[in-house]
Write a structure and sequence with these properties.
The protein is mostly helical. The protein has one domain. It is built from five helices and no strands. It has helices spanning 14-42, 48-63, 65-85, 90-108, 113-131. It is elongated and about 55 Å long. The chain crosses the membrane at residues 17-40, 52-76, 88-108, 114-131.
């Protein structure tokens, strides 16, 4: 397997693809909940600037499924097509996430969503590789 190519698949592995999508959408939210829990535990001991940074990061990650779900709905058909064509390597996954995240970011007037889209699609690719190692059909 290379950075660009993956083995062609005769059919889209929908169960594994949807499972990977759920993990990719919920993993940042779980990380955000952990950040907020850490803030709750260490809040009084933290300097105000660091506490604020931890709160902003945790809240943004916890609320990220609100936008990443819309991006995932747009990305799943593209990922399915790329899997069947054998083009769902790491770079096409990142480029797809960057493009879809950028489009959603332009509509929502939120610039960091392009980078978030790329990271979420890379998480999708990693989880999909763990659930179903892509072998030639």
């Amino acid at each position: 397997m290379s950075l660009i190519y993956s083995p062609e698949q005769l059919q889209t592995p929908w169960r594994d693809l949807l499972t990977a999508a759920v993990v990719a959408v919920l993993l940042p939210a779980a990380t955000g909940v952990l950040c907020l829990g850490l803030l709750r535990l260490a809040g009084p001991a933290l300097p105000p600037a660091q506490g604020l940074a931890l709160w902003v990061t945790g809240t943004a990650l916890m609320l990220s499924p609100l936008l990443s779900l819309a991006g995932m709905i747009l990305a799943l058909p593209v990922a399915s097509l790329l899997i069947r064509l054998g083009w769902f390597g790491w770079l096409p996954a990142a480029a797809t996430g960057l493009a879809i995240g950028g489009a959603i970011g332009a509509m929502a007037d939120f610039a960091p969503s392009a980078v978030s889209g790329a990271m979420i699609l890379l998480i999708l690719r990693a989880v999909l590789g763990i659930l179903r190692p892509m072998r030639p059909a």
